[in-house]
Design goal:
Blueprint lengths: L1 H16 L36 E12 L8 E12 L14 E3 L2 E2 L1 E2 L5 E5 L14 E5 L8 E5 L5 E2 L6 E2 L5 E5 L4 E2 L3 E8 L2 E7 L4 E5 L1 H4 L5 E20 L2 E17 L1
Parallel strand pairs: 1-17, 10-17
Antiparallel strand pairs: 1-2, 2-6, 3-4, 3-7, 5-6, 7-8, 9-12, 11-15, 13-14, 13-16, 16-17
């Protein structure tokens, strides 16, 4: 479980960073990278948004691992609810919005007014009932008027092959087409090892996600399977409540341990 929470923090940080993204079919960008930490599931500061007053984010994380002695890989699925409310579009100041819940599960409010809730195996709750949608209820405060909204869009899905190891001098290529990807507006690909991480965003029609040898050159060699790769397709839509615009995001985060040569 401790190893699992190591990966949840960067997933949360990247998910909140999506607030500033826009739909793009082919453009590839390199945003600021996020270094994973072992501090567990804490909501990181999101990137400054463009024209929205807040975000409601549903994340399904599939962590693929093969523990020592296990003859087959093990997949652990976690569901994560995230919410953030800004004082104005373009501001990084986050507001208290009262009690915020998804599918009746109350999110935990951080000291910076970011909201998060992680559900996974052997915890309570074990899931957030995302199979039945994401029904959000914002209790409201003096700064945010209460509202409810049901985000019914399906989760995007990546079902492609992720390597067990990558060779820096050869770069990394992952297939992103109709046979591996569905329901996504964009896809984030992350590689991380130790204090080094690199993230790149691809459009859903990219065909392949490529991280070059030059972009991998600064990574250390890893032989104990402790490096990590994440492929994160996501989609989003906006809604207006009480005269304010909110973005609703659904993301799948496929996480795998790898070696780096």
């Amino acid at each position: 479980m401790k190893k699992l929470t190591y990966f949840i923090a960067p997933v949360i940080a990247m998910s909140l960073g999506m607030v500033s993204c826009s739909k793009d079919d082919n453009k590839t960008t390199t945003p600021t990278t996020t270094t994973p930490t072992a501090t567990g599931p804490t909501a990181a500061t999101p990137a400054t948004p463009g024209d929205v007053d807040g975000a409601l984010i549903s994340v399904r994380m599939d962590y693929n691992s093969q523990p020592a002695g296990s003859p087959v890989p093990v997949k652990i699925t976690s569901e994560i609810g995230l919410a953030v409310f800004f004082s104005a579009p373009g501001s990084s100041t986050k507001l208290d919005a009262g009690t915020v819940a998804v599918n009746t599960y109350n999110l935990d409010k951080g000291t910076d007014n970011s909201y998060s809730k992680v559900a996974t195996i052997a915890s309570t709750p074990a899931d957030l009932n995302f199979d039945n949608g994401s029904s959000w209820n914002v209790g409201g405060s003096s700064n945010v008027t209460a509202f409810s909204v049901n985000h019914t869009a399906a989760f995007p899905s990546f079902d492609g092959t992720m390597p067990s190891s990558i060779t820096k001098s050869s770069g990394l290529t992952i297939q992103l087409d109709n046979s591996t990807l569905s329901g996504a507006d964009s896809v984030l690909v992350l590689v991380a090892a130790g204090s080094k991480s690199f993230t790149k965003t691809f459009g859903p029609n990219a065909g392949t996600a490529t991280i070059s040898a030059a972009e991998l050159s600064g990574f250390p060699a890893v032989t104990d399977n402790s490096a990590v790769m994440e492929v994160c397709p996501y989609n989003f839509t906006t809604t207006t409540k009480n005269g304010k615009k909110y973005v609703m995001i659904k993301e799948q985060a496929v996480v795998k341990n790898i070696n780096i040569n």
